[in-house]
Fold each of these.
Amino acid sequence: MTPKLKAQAGTFESSDIMILIEPVEKDSGRKIDISSTVMLQFEEDIKKTISDVLDELQIKDLHLIAKDKGALTQTIKARVETAIKRSLGIQEGTM
């Protein structure tokens, strides 16, 4: 599946993560940009968690921007899933 709309989930609060989704052209692949207050310690874990959710939802083409403030793995999963569903038009939300 390919996201159709811009969407977001999460906040800039401590222990949360803001996920922004931007649609891209079909077959352009995934572009994931991450900024985090805990980048040195957990960058690979954050990338893996995001990629696992995208794989599970069968998302191949998108631009995802993650702005992390120390979110736990379950929070990251929930925010990515919510943003993707909003981008696909499955769930309503902001943007």
Amino acid sequence: MITRRGELYRNPSQGKIAGVCAGIADYFGWETWLVRILVVSGVLFGMPFLILGYIAGWFILDKNPKMPGKRAKAKYDRAEQSEGSHHYDNEYVAREKTSDHIKVKARVWQSGEPPKQAFHDIRRKFGSLERQLQAIEQYVTSSEFTVAREINKL
């Protein structure tokens, strides 16, 4: 059975120069550092055509439309640090938080998180959901909610 991997894109938000190695790593499901080491080792051990291949990939491959640019990613990182501040794009932060999947890696070269880090990320997500649920419960059981509901009935 043949499984389809999807499209090959550059990933400049995770890349060092143009994101070609990061895009190749995403395509194959590998860690970005592994692809970088393979490319640099290949160039050092007599395969200088990889430099031309990298430059060609830079010009030929499109940026990944699903990945935010560096500016949007920096905006999201600042928003996470100052959760109470509203100097960021709320829609982007909400979309990014809900689409943040945790992928646990089984092998060292595969992309994803080590199990211990994934556990901490899951704990953080559930803690955030717990705080949101408590805020909702607090509002629903308040007299403000009861008054607003009675006014809406009129």
